[in-house]
Amino acid sequence: MENSTCDKNLENFFLEKVTEAEGLIVAKTKVYSRLLTDVALAQEMEKIALKREKSKSAWLEILTGEPQNTSGDLQGETSQTQDQNQEGESAE
Question: Is the pTM of this model over 0.90?
């Protein structure tokens, strides 16, 4: 019985670390997409952020056993970033 508890604790630790890593990836790609002046590259970074956010949600769902809702989390930010990038292009 003790081995089963140890395995479950190790599994939870691993899932928590993977989820943390996914969160860092999401945060960094969001920042990079806002800072980049190349619109195409910024859009690619946004796509990566969306994919990683979905991945993070999947890991959280496995960890907590509860469905995670991310449908609107990055969509608004994506359109804001696109607007900011377009404004930057028109200013040049």
Answer: no
